[in-house]
Write a structure and sequence with these properties.
- By secondary structure, the chain is of the alpha+beta class.
- About 30% of the residues lie in helices and about 25% in strands.
- It is built from 7 helices and 11 strands.
- The strands form 3 sheets. Strands 1, 2, 3, 4, 10 and 11 form a 6-stranded antiparallel beta sheet that branches.
- A hairpin with a 4-residue loop joins strand 10 and strand 11.
- Helix 1 packs across helix 3.
- The longest helix has 25 residues.
- It is elongated.
- It starts with 11 loop residues before the first helix and ends in a 13-residue tail after the last strand.
């Protein structure tokens, strides 16, 4: 019987070395970018969508974005006065926590602020996302669905049947409740209904330049993230 490829042993030392090398590449890339761009921003994001983020990045080239391990990005910039690569950059590191990233650019700050503040895009919510509204379907025909969909809808928990080739609900059905997490079934039904509840947004947290440091989030200061 042939051996499964899954059973082949993996040398952990090699994977660790590769991981370390990858981190070093990121650290060096960030440090090189710091030398080439005048301003550095930390931003947070909601409902990240890779394709939409790629489209946003294309709008503002030749700037640089970095997403990934917050700790690696902190190491690249320096986490304290003693190891920061430029004066004041340890302040930036303190805000790299949670769903955050780095944006380095030579664009005027007013232009950056405008692009980030205006940008938002809607998409279908995923399992576990919080419903932004209650969606309830009344008893009766669901003419947007073909008869072939009836078995699939039943599997999603919908009380449906075929009536003369038309899918119909035999009773009112609540797809989701506002403020509650979406189940896999609810997320699938919302997608079928064309209801988009996820908003992909980017929020500026702070800006650094050689001249100054600026916080964008009201009521937030460095002490709020000392333990991050």
């Amino acid at each position: 019987m042939p051996k499964s490829k899954r059973d082949r042993p993996v040398t952990l030392s090699k994977t660790k070395k590769k991981g370390k090398e990858h981190k070093e590449v990121i650290v060096n890339s960030i440090r090189n970018a710091v030398e080439n761009y005048k301003s550095i921003y930390v931003f947070s994001f909601e409902n990240m969508r890779n394709l939409k983020f790629k489209e946003f990045r294309e709008q503002i080239k030749p700037s640089r974005f970095f997403l990934g391990s917050n700790k690696v990005m902190q190491v690249a910039l320096g986490r304290s006065v003693s190891d920061e690569i430029q004066p004041g950059l340890h302040k930036v590191s303190k805000f790299l926590c949670g769903n955050t990233g780095l944006f380095l650019t030579n664009m005027p700050k007013e232009e950056v602020e405008s692009l980030f503040n205006k940008y938002e895009d809607y998409d279908f919510a995923r399992t576990g996302s919080t419903a932004t509204e209650k969606v309830e379907l009344p008893e009766g025909p669901l003419e947007q669905f073909t008869h072939e969909m009836e078995p699939f809808l039943r599997k999603q928990g919908m009380p449906v049947r075929l009536n003369k080739g038309v899918v119909e609900l035999v009773s009112d059905f609540v797809v989701c409740e506002e403020g509650k997490p979406l189940s896999p079934e609810s997320a699938r039904i919302l997608r079928l209904l064309g209801i988009k509840m996820a908003t992909f947004k980017l929020h500026l947290i702070c800006r650094w330049s050689a001249e100054d440091f600026e916080l964008y989030r009201e009521g937030l200061d460095e002490s709020d993230v000392e333990s991050a």
